[in-house]
Amino acid sequence: MPVPDGLDGMRVDAGLSRLLGLSRTVVAALAEQGRVAVDGQAAGKSDRLPGGSWLEIELPDAAAPAASGAPEEEVAGLAILYSDDDIVVVDKPVGVAAHPSPGWNGPTVTGGLAALGVRLSTSGAAERQGIVHRLDAGTTGVMVVATSEHAYTALKRAFKERTVLKRYHAVVQGHPDPSSGTIDAPIDRHPRHDYRYAVVADGRPSVTHYDTVEAFRAASLLDVRLETGRTHQIRVHFSALRHPCVGDLTYGADPTLAARTGLTRQWLHARMLGFAHPGDGRQVEFTSPYPADLAAALDTLRD
Fold it and tell me: Any idea which residues carry the catalytic annotation?
């Protein structure tokens, strides 16, 4: 088929996701397998789609069985904070992804729950069944996963309609001015670094509210509330203000301060999650304590 004019200039993964109704993860996998060609040449996921060019896509056999979900794998430190017939709320440790994805070979929340005998909702793509929101592998804290089809639908709607209360704690370099405020800046993929995101003029609307909880000599502990939920949103917004999360070398953190605090990842923790329970509508809230590495870094900053 020809590339529609409306997709002219878009990335392959974004454009074909819109055209075919597939997730960007699935399209990226197709491109990596050599199943996407533009004018007869294999196209990578980050290549651009020229309007009017001839597009060839080899889709997986529809008759083939769906890919299985995450393999069962015990995940050290993955704690269940709450569970019932509709949801399971977990405290995600560092170094664990929400679900399998291309290029990730480490442990996942879905695989860890499978190893614990938790049956998740079958809604959603096979590799992320039950997943209604995600945390970065390097971000710890509270996360909810759907175990019933009704809960999956209700929670996906709640996140989309922004009725879920998401509070994070972050330690950022320096002292944001003002000490409490709102960051309203659009975010999209970085124009030059495929694995990063950035504030860009034509990005997706992104809003972050913050309050300073405690100020140290070289950093500040912030209570952060997300109005939107873009990938890397907190990390990108505070990096754009030149107050990156301590330890977040990907987004410009000071490596000397990271070493002094013993951090090998960003100081960012999903502290609390609140939402209407999909079973009976009651408001529920779940809180996660700081993990050992973040607590130790705080003690160092306070000394």
Answer: 136
